[in-house]
Amino acid sequence: xxxSGLLFVHALLRRPKGVARRIGLAAAGAIPFVVWxxxxxxxLIPNPIxxxxxxxxxxxxxxxxxxxxxxxxxxxxxxRPSALIxxxxxxxxxxxxxxxxxxxxxxxxxxxxxxxxxxxxGGLIIGLGYLIAGGLVFPWYLPLVAxxxxxxxxxxxxxxxxxxxxxxxxxxxxxxxxxxxSLTAAVADPALYRYFxxxxxxxxxxxxxxxxxARYPDTTLLSSEVGALGWAFQGRVLDGAGLISPEAIRHxxxxxxxxxxxxxxxxxxxxxxxxxxxxxx
Length: 281
Known about the structure:
This protein is mainly alpha-helical. The chain folds into three domains: about 1-45, no CATH class; about 45-190, no CATH class; about 200-275, no CATH class. Helices cover about 65% and strands about 0% of the residues. The chain is built from twelve helices and two strands, in the order ααααααααααβαβα. A two-stranded parallel ribbon has the order 1-2. It is globular and about 70 Å long.
C-alpha cells in the first residue's frame, strides 16, 4: 500500500495533466476495499494495530536494532545481533547503495531510477512507521522492510557483472546459509533454529490449552497471549493484551517496572481482571 501510494504520487507529479480524473479513478478503486474493511472489522484500522501501539513500549534504540538487523546482509550468519555486526552491515549496505546509484546513473533512464528509489523508500517508510510507533516488531514483519529494499538494490546493481557478484556475495549468500541452518534445525536439531527459544512455548501453550479445555470447558479463560492457547481451548478466551479484547486496552499501558518488568511484555492488567472476573487466568 505504501509503495502504491508513492507510485501514484510520482505519476501525478510526472504527468500532472488529468489529475482530478486519475484521483477519482484511484478513489473509486479503493471504495470496495474500504466498504469491506468497515463491514467486516467496523474500522479501517484493525484493533490489533491499535492495541500493539498502546500495550508495548519499546525504546527507539531497540526497535532500530531490530530493523537494522532486517536490512543487515550478514545478520543471518550470526546467532545474535551485535553492534559490530550491525556496523559492518551498515558499511556494506552504504557501499552497495553508493555503487548502485553510480551504476544506475549510467545505465538506467531517470524515470526508472526514480521508480527504483520509490521501491526502496516504501520499505524504509514502513520501517520508520515501526520506529515511530515504538511497538513490538515481530520477525514476520521484517520482510515488509527488507524485501523492497533488497529488490531496489538488485535493480540498481544487476546491470553489471561486478554488481551481480556483489548481490550474490553480500545479499543472497548469507541468507542462503541462514536458510541452511533453519533446514538443519527442522530435520536434525531444533535448537539450531534462531528463534527456537521464543517459539518453543507454542507447543506448551497447545498442551496447556488442551488440558484446560478438558477440565474446564465452560469457563472463561484470561491470558496475556491467545495464539496457540486459544486454538486448543474451545471456551471463551479474553486477551489481556487487548488484541482480540478491545476493552482491555483502556487498562494499558502498564507501568514499568511497577506493573511489568519490561516494556515489550504484554502482561495482564489487574484492573482488567477485576472488571471481567474470569474463571481461569
